[in-house]
Amino acid sequence: SPAASCPKVCIVGGGPAGFYTAQHLVKTRPDVQVDIYERLPVPFGLVRFGVAPDHPEVKNVMNTFTQTAQHARCSFHGNVSVGKDVTVQELQEAYHAVVLSYGAEGNRTLGVPGEDLAGVHSAKDFVGWYNGLPTNRDLRPDLRCETAVILGQGNVALDVARILLSPVDILKNTDITQPALDTLAESSVRRVLIVGRRGPLQLACTIKELREMVNLPGTRPEMEASDFECIAKMLKVLPRPRKRLTELLLKVAVETPEETELERRNSAKRAWGFRFFRSPLFKAVTEDIKAKLALVFQQGEGEDVWAVTTGEVEDVECGLVISSIGYKSLPIDPAVPFDPRKHIIPNTMGRVQKCAGLYCSGWVKRGPTGVIATTMNDSFDTARTLLHDMDEGTLDISTVKPGSAGVTTILEKRGVKPVLFSDWEKIDSEESKRGEARGKPREKLLDVGEMLKVAWT
Ligand code: FAD
């Protein structure tokens, strides 16, 4: 039949990269069949488990992904961990092409002593906890402290700061998990310091995230004016996006606010601020880490981009440290080349180097930076490369491949049962139902076992 001989492509990872790659493939080529394999029983990757609960508008992309999953020539197979349940080689035998879009599930570490202390978490785990990632379910961060320190100044750091400081009234109608909401409701955190090794001109967040921080009800900024002394005169030479970000930063940090803003700040019970030119040293100085996790900062040098040791150290009394210095991709299968320094799959325009028929897209292709729109463009690029190779004949599609039928047989033998998109829709409606009861868009299931039970009944 024509369906049996159509080009078959499989995608590893059901996040934005996977869905956008699939979307472009099925839209552009009328005969291609695309199957997405996802480790978790639920789709959408970091849109579900990364994007902050108070950013519901960002999650609207799930509607587009759902349309792709429901396309006649696309199918979703959740609960399949590639590299474990099925190898990449087995996928290559079943499909004409395999696209690796499995994101960045690892965590960059600081490499300083004390990183593993109680009270020190990675942003990745903390975000996973408030967003209901099953592996982070039991994190239970202790928020019975006045000051929290976040190491890193990118968008994820600001997400974490905002969630820690948001009035619970704002969060309670989002899809934040109930255990996280309950913990935040009891939180004693009143002050969040967002620490970076570099200076205000290198601040790594976007203006949207900074603006949200500035406008967060019940909070006031608390900066050190001296950090900004030399900045104003540099505004003129800055490129436009940097200039706008810096102008906002200066306005918040050094300008005297007008009266209503002053009143707002004076009545605020919670505070946040950036701390620049500081590099974490850790080394707990006290015995009682839970009560006082002493942080030692190494102070950098003036306007230098990278912190240079001055010999000066600073103790910050805090009970919670969240390190937000980035994600990193991990190798999932020894058969796939991996760059251990850049933590990506080495590729040329999405073609995995020296591996015919193997492609990659998203964070595993270019590293863990960029918003969903960046990931979308990057995934469309990979899809274009793949289609080009099909057209040119450098990707062989002349043989008949079994596609998902072949993989299903392998999985069955290993006792692995995939969660199809229609199964996910049962989880989705159960979550919506539970959410409705609490005035939330959804109440996420937190346990893989429970997800599977709902999916298959
Ligand atoms: P992912 O989204 O991580 O998807 C990868 C998928 O692969 C996951 O579902 C994973 O379970 C699956 N997988 C992993 N290993 C395997 C395996 N072995 N087998 C099968 N499947 C596997 N962007 C915005 O535009 N706005 C925001 O507000 C925003 N907030 C963010 C907040 C946080 C905390 C983070 C980390 C990122 C945020 N982003 C935001 C960026 C956005 O999430 C990324 O650009 C995008 O998710 C990257 O897509 P991806 O598909 O490459 O990776």
UniProtKB/TrEMBL annotation:
Pathway: Steroid metabolism; cholesterol metabolism. Its EC number is 1.18.1.6. It catalyses: 2 reduced [adrenodoxin] + NADP(+) + H(+) = 2 oxidized [adrenodoxin] + NADPH. One of its GO terms (biological process) is cholesterol metabolic process. It holds the Pfam family Pyr_redox_2. NADP(+) binds at Q153, G154, N155, V156, R197, R198, E209, G370. The keyword ATP-binding does not apply. The keyword Transit peptide applies. Residues 8-166 form the FAD/NAD(P)-binding domain. It is found in: Mitochondrion. Its cofactor is FAD. FAD binds at A17, E38, L46, V82, W363, G370, V371, I372. GO terms for cellular component: mitochondrion. Keywords: Electron transport, FAD, Flavoprotein, Mitochondrion, NADP, Oxidoreductase, Transit peptide, Transport. Belongs to the ferredoxin--NADP reductase type 1 family. This is NADPH:adrenodoxin oxidoreductase, mitochondrial. It comes from Esox lucius.
